Amino acid sequence: MSLERKDEHDHKGWMESRELTPIESVYLTVLVWLDRRLRVVDYLEILEDLYYKVNMQMPKSHTEQYNLDNKFWYWYPLYALGSFSTVAYIVAAISGALLGFYYAPAAAAADGSPTVAYDSVMLIMGQLNLGYFLRSVHRWAAQIMVAAVFLHMLRVYFTGSYKEPRELNWLIGIVLISLTLVFGYTGYLLPWSQLSFWAGQIGVEMSLSIPLIGEWVAQLMFGGFTLSQATLQRMYILHVFFLPFITTAIIAVHIGIVWMQGIAEPH
């Protein structure tokens, strides 16, 4: 008598009775293996049940209510801008993390060289294998993300997708585009080149122009009224530590709300 646990659903026999592709066979084999040990399928069924319960509570979309699935096909590429900006953000995050291994956030060195930060960027661009490519990928991903987020906000506005019941996600989107611009500005200062220096000086002057709290904002964001090591250090901490975690968390909330409410088609 065998002590081996009997497969109640005979997964192996079911798989053999179907004409499965190699990819499907590997996927189902891994899924069955995990399910026997971690009850993965039970948790997937709970998520599926939750998904349908949440979506059944939402009103029908316009395409569902008026059977317009094939009437607004020319709008559909614009509905990929949110996903496109998310992919650009992921590419920028990965390439930025790799650049961080070689970047040094120091404005000056003990030997008198003008800027360690700028020298480290030059090392990445000129001496590191694929360094020029890596920095270019990071820069282009950031620029594409800014453009995609801006166009995404325009699409949401002109299609009326910000209206009830999606007002909260519209406000979250405004926060995300603001964080995207802060991401771009802090990253722009990190090479500590002439362009970075004068962009930072403009930021200081803009901070000082704020009524009542201008000097306090300049001290907090730039470490003073002139650019220094404290400025570069603040930009680096914001760009590498604070903004990624905050932005990733808010993106997760934003996508979660879209998943619960569904996509708002053109009105």
Automatic annotation (TrEMBL):
Keyword match Transmembrane helix: yes
Pfam families: Cytochrome_B (PF00033)
Signal peptide: none
A GO MF label: electron transfer activity
GO biological process: respiratory electron transport chain
Transmembrane region(s): 78-104, 140-158, 170-188, 208-228, 240-260
PANTHER family per UniProt: CYTOCHROME B
Protein name as it appears in the record: Cytochrome b6
Organism: Haloarcula vallismortis ATCC 29715
Upper taxonomic lineage: Archaea, Methanobacteriati, Methanobacteriota, Stenosarchaea group, Halobacteria
